Amino acid sequence: MLYKYSNHFKFIAMIITGFIASCSTIISAYMVQTLTNIATQKKWDQVGSFLIIVIIGFLITFMASLIFNRLKTAAIQEANIYLRTNIFKGMLNTDRDENSDALGFLTNDFKLLETNRFDAQIEIIMQACTLMLALGYALSVNWLVTILFLVGSFVPMFISNFFQKSIQNASEDWTEANGKYVNQTKNFLAGSETLSLYNGQENAAKKNQVKVFNLETALRKMNLLNLDTGSWISLISNLVTFLVPFLTGIYMVIHDMTTLGSLFAIVQLANSFVNPILTILSDRNELSTTKKIVEKTNKYLALANSEKDSNEKSAFQDLTLTDISLNRKGQQLIQNLDLTIKNKTKQAIIGPSGTGKSTLLQFLMKGKYGEAKEILLNGKIEKAGNFENIFAYASQAPVIFADTLWFNLTLGKDIPQEIVEQVCSKLQLTNVIKEKGFDYSLGDNADQLSGGQLARIELARAILSRCPVLLLDEINASLDKKTSDKIHQYLLNSDLTFVEVTHHYEANELGNYDNVIDLKGYME
């Protein structure tokens, strides 16, 4: 995964420098073997050449490790930037209802990719390099003792297999508990003013404590399984992986089958058999804890890279939906509704509360909460939800982003300033622009604008999108009568195509629309 999302050349250079850095184990074994032989054979004159070789070797491996560190952190940074950017992009292509745990995933779960996956992947590669180098050198010293240590080194692997499934299940439980904790905490914090108003802080904290307990219990279980696995592996490795081969080596030294320096060198290298294998097993456990996170990451990446079917906005002529029925939360709303939206027409949707007026707009945009017997876009059959790019949307609960006024109006699209100013003028936003400026931040300062001003900013955004059809959901809810009339006069006299849900209207105002649909007549 890390190789896929980082610079390939740098990644390969990282492996090469890591391989060179791993040679420090060989130098340590050579040092133990040579010094032991110098001592037993009393050849002090060999110390000078020995020191030169060892010092040069350690300096080379030290420089390689410094380069490796920089390449490793750069590779992780590149992968993180790519993944965070594209995961977020994929989340933006996901329905809000399906994305309730998105923030927790980007903060807590994503961090596990770095700590439990990227680090583990690199560590496995480096430990494999150490194992190969140590094994090659040890075999050249004494193959029989080396084989004994090597066989013993694989025993912990079988112990680790007993714990794999339990660790993975514990990790999934922790991920689920973490998502619930983050969602509830975010919800309570968003409603902190209401909780303070009704003195509900204590009860909210008690509710949250349940989620905290479940989260920490799941984390404790996962950590305990990892620790217990390490304890069992440590016990087996001390007995089988080290004691038995070392006793065999002592026997061979006593019977002049090998030298003491060779045995010590292999014992020194044995740690480079055992430790890499133990580390690889531990890292494998870490990888298993991120399985679900990787699956979710891949899902978001697929959404980020998917291209939606595009319909030419300028080619819109008409949209006809036959026999629409809406159903939300198990409740039947309307049935047998036929709706035709023609270019440059203005339609009003009215009806009592609960009939599905806003739900109808959601069905048009997303294909959710209902179905239609037939849908024709410009005379061609389409499926519900496959043509949402023809719609722009403005509602009584405007979505405002923590960015500049300009971004909120244009969403970063290249729109000439004079066109933006023209639309804002028609929507009575000129004073806001003169007073605040397009660079005014609507993050922490959004509350300094009125609800009506924010609603008009969203309406301006919808108009500036140049989408063929505007879906307007009670846009006059936060507007005074005078401003509402001016805006509706502009909309009705324009060449815009729109469908407007409205609750508050005068009977004579409905005559200004090309068509009025009363959903009351389509209820059961």
TrEMBL record:
<keyword id="KW-0472">Membrane</keyword>
<keyword id="KW-0812">Transmembrane</keyword>
<dbReference type="Pfam" id="PF00005">
    <property type="entry name" value="ABC_tran"/>
</dbReference>
<keyword id="KW-0547">Nucleotide-binding</keyword>
<feature type="transmembrane region" description="Helical">
    <location>
        <begin position="12"/>
        <end position="32"/>
    </location>
</feature>
<dbReference type="InterPro" id="IPR011527">
    <property type="entry name" value="ABC1_TM_dom"/>
</dbReference>
<dbReference type="Pfam" id="PF00664">
    <property type="entry name" value="ABC_membrane"/>
</dbReference>
<keyword id="KW-0067">ATP-binding</keyword>
<protein>
    <submittedName>
        <fullName>ABC transporter ATP-binding protein</fullName>
    </submittedName>
</protein>
<dbReference type="InterPro" id="IPR036640">
    <property type="entry name" value="ABC1_TM_sf"/>
</dbReference>
<feature type="transmembrane region" description="Helical">
    <location>
        <begin position="230"/>
        <end position="254"/>
    </location>
</feature>
<dbReference type="GO" id="GO:0005524">
    <property type="term" value="F:ATP binding"/>
</dbReference>
<dbReference type="InterPro" id="IPR003593">
    <property type="entry name" value="AAA+_ATPase"/>
</dbReference>
<dbReference type="InterPro" id="IPR017871">
    <property type="entry name" value="ABC_transporter-like_CS"/>
</dbReference>
<dbReference type="InterPro" id="IPR027417">
    <property type="entry name" value="P-loop_NTPase"/>
</dbReference>
<dbReference type="InterPro" id="IPR003439">
    <property type="entry name" value="ABC_transporter-like_ATP-bd"/>
</dbReference>
<feature type="domain" description="ABC transmembrane type-1">
    <location>
        <begin position="11"/>
        <end position="289"/>
    </location>
</feature>
<feature type="transmembrane region" description="Helical">
    <location>
        <begin position="143"/>
        <end position="163"/>
    </location>
</feature>
<feature type="transmembrane region" description="Helical">
    <location>
        <begin position="260"/>
        <end position="281"/>
    </location>
</feature>
<keyword id="KW-1133">Transmembrane helix</keyword>
<feature type="domain" description="ABC transporter">
    <location>
        <begin position="319"/>
        <end position="523"/>
    </location>
</feature>
<feature type="transmembrane region" description="Helical">
    <location>
        <begin position="47"/>
        <end position="68"/>
    </location>
</feature>
<dbReference type="InterPro" id="IPR039421">
    <property type="entry name" value="Type_1_exporter"/>
</dbReference>
